[in-house]
Amino acid sequence: MNDQAINKIVSTAVPLNQENVDTDQIIPARFLKATSRDGFGENLFRDWRYNADGSAKKDFVLNDATYKGKILVAAKNFGCGSSREHAAWAIKDAGFDVVVSSFFADIFKNNALNNFLLPVTVSEDFLQGLFKAIQMDPSTRIDVNLAEQTISAAGQREHFDINNYKKTCLLNGYDDIDYLLSIRGEIEKFEQQQA
Amino acid sequence: MAKTLFEKIWNDHIIRTIDGGPSVLYIDKHFIHEVTSPQAFKGLEKRGLPVFRPRQIVATADHNVPTVDQHLPIKDELSRIQVQQLIENCQRHDIELFGLGHPYQGIVHVIGPELGITQPGMTIVCGDSHTSTHGAFGAIAFGIGTSEVEMVMATQCLLQSKPRLMRINVEGRLNKGVVSKDIILYIISAISASGATGYFVEYAGSAIRGLSMEARMTICNMSIEMGARGGMIAPDQTTFDYLKGRQFAPTGAAWDAAVSKWSTLYSDEGARFDKEILIDAAAIEPMITYGTNPGMGVGISGHIPAESEIGEKEKPSYIKSLAYMGLQAGSAIKGKKVDYVFIGSCTNSRIEDLRMVASFVKGRKKADHVEVWIVPGSKQVEKQAIEEGIDKVFEAAGFRLRQPGCSACLGMNEDKIPAGKYCISTSNRNFEGRQGPNARTLLASPLTAAAAAITGEITDVREYL
Ligand code: SF4
Fold first, then answer.
1. How far is A166 from chain B (nearest CA, A)?
2. Which of A74, A108, B123, B333 sits at a 20 to 30 Å CA gap from B151?
3. How confident is the model over B182-227, as pLDDT tens digits?
4. Dihedral class, residue B326 (left if φ above 0, else alpha if ψ from -120 to 50, else beta)
5. Same structural domain, B21 and B91
6. Residue B267: which domain range?
7. B345 CB under 6 A from ligand 1?
8. ipTM computed for the complex
């Protein structure tokens, strides 16, 4: 996946101001029958986005043409529940490169990182400021800089954490398998010692 | 230095730690199933890699399988393809598969323990968040995403940062009618659906020690519902007795060696946890959830919180959640009519759960308006239930034992709860749409679910014991 390196993302954002968004909402189980990684974006937030007859629910933010962009701004405890990586695939497939929240569920965070979808954890204050700014002006631009680990918008700026190893991976487009394969000799030695 | 149970196993499996980054964790056992593995096999093949240690992988088909007429071809085309791909992938890569029709088939977190594949001191992963179930044996077990499934297939390792550690001590005696599902629902309601995010939890205390293995699995299973990476319980005589003689458990001298090693797996006196919580077992009532995350639970005699009891910030999602459930803030939960009862899932589909239900419904009849689905966790559970005559008890009560699988826990197969209907479920998630679009799920113990099957409404089972 070496074509997926990310660094600077500058974009408007789609605000999803709803806490505890679980992965069953992001992509319901009945859409997990595919055996490839593609095409999940269509069913992202399926039951919030569409009525049972397939028509769009007008009041859902993804159906609101006012908001667009590569950044999804979500409320606290985003991505809880199932380990389905399909959730990260669906968000990425729908055109997002970054998800911002004040709190991510662990497995979702790992899944996102493994798919070059950057989870940015900000303070609750910063997040609330972001929601306000986007609401007041949907053309608000958010600037995410991975190398500097900063996110800025509407005159506020915050530093975000990411471990160094993962940062290097994202900046260079490496993934964990590349790394683990490079130490295969060491893994085999470990196995022999255990036996 | 004093070490926790987690640290003892973790340290034993770390190959190296990257400066300022994660550690390389060696994985002993890897369970796979049809839904989260196909993309991993594809990824592996795209890279031109073989499966590194196929002997350490065990596969089953569970998430997407029908629970009636399993001997017939799967009707739903996409499900059939997914199950077929698993068969082909396992053949191609020489992986042991307990697929449909196999006497060991069942929900992945039920079969691992019952076959004795899950053992103390192991590191265990699976592309499913309820892998935490296996922690009941004193293993480090956690759910992973599909990219990680691919990593483990390729290298038998994962890059992991050491989580923070929490110990939850449940002390004292449980009241009549209160079972392990109530303990875990109580804990989650106390600390919230995100209260343990970033932590690995060890459950300890006299009330936990007194539980059977099945009951311990129910507790560890739901660790993820409070955000924890996993949950675990130190192995003891109960653990060893459960494992002894199981198909894949060690035998002879290897068994003795294993038990002496396993006996060293406990948190040392004075070991440090980042957080400790004390729960009074006697304070726990039979529990039920009323909302759309597992933290939204109350004691059966309690009421749904009034809006005034909810913080300003949480209010919008609280109102939305109750609107979805069609329930009234401030009202009592008991006496509410239910339409469906689902007894199954990796939380509560083991033989002990079915026995518990059977002993309650014996000599009673289900309420006319209620539809009851009982789905055993595995072929072996099904077989044992039939041998013990449990299926006959169910039939006499007006319902039927189905065939094993995840079923209405996630509604991927045809077992879906219709829109707007109320289902008392022994599963682990009450998320919007989890059991079917617009289905309304109330999580409870097998005992509370059995009582609702008989009365047709939310019932305090203690009144019938
Ligand atoms: S029973 Fe439910 S929770 Fe358990 S593995 Fe199956 S889908 Fe997941």
1. 8
2. A74
3. 999 999 999 999 999 999 999 999 999 999 999 999 999 999 999 9
4. left
5. yes
6. 164-237+250-283
7. yes
8. 0.91
